[in-house]
């Protein structure tokens, strides 16, 4: 699912969230962008919640498991949205990338067009 990031750059992944009805499976895709290009996106901060309560989404045409809390956060679009959300836009299984991206979070949040906070 994850294309390797150039850790010496300002590249991040953004999630393109496709619209759908409440009962439709969530469908989305990752896109690699540079913060230097000033992409337009929304950033989402949320409580991960119970990590054992899982839901399945369609990410880049593959089934991908996310927390129930994240599925709720993503479940609201009525139109396509481009968002940054740490659980999906950072390769959580790559410690080097995770550290690099966490160090960029101040820039990621400050350059977002809007930042949404979801507490559950």
UniProtKB/TrEMBL annotation:
Q: Specify the Heterokaryon incompatibility domain's residue ranges.
A: 41-119
Query: Which InterPro entries does this UniProt record tie to the protein?
Result: HET, HetReg/Transcr_Mod
A UniProt-annotated Pfam family = HET
Top-level taxon in the UniProt lineage: Eukaryota
Which PANTHER family does the record associate with it? ANKYRIN REPEAT DOMAIN-CONTAINING PROTEIN 39 HOMOLOG-RELATED, HETEROKARYON INCOMPATIBILITY DOMAIN-CONTAINING PROTEIN
Name this protein carries in UniProt: Heterokaryon incompatibility domain-containing protein
